[in-house]
Amino acid sequence: QVQVVESGGGLVQAGGSLRLSCAASGSIFSIKSMGWYRQAPGKVREMVASITSRGVTNYADSVEDRFTIFRDNAGSTVYLQMNSLKPEDTAVYYCNADGWFGTDFSSWGQGTQVTVSS
To answer: Is residue 75's pLDDT more than 90?
Structure first.
């Protein structure tokens, strides 16, 4: 199994930057992709960015050109660099790891709060 833990959230002014980290542990070799999702109050959880084990990235239209997802060489930590933050980026950000280890799995972190003030 794989466990993921997020860190790096906080309060920032509009136009500022934050970097989120997601550390994976356990059967890391079984991970096929990792991604960041967010959920604002009263809204459904949405995909923000993802990266596959081969390095293919995907972004939500709302964050394209502002956010960058990347990982370390070991593939055990994934980062989300968030620039030009907007108040509408305020949400709880969750890390997710999908893979296969005898069966498909999807592991979620506990979430980290990002608040962007106007």
So the answer is: no
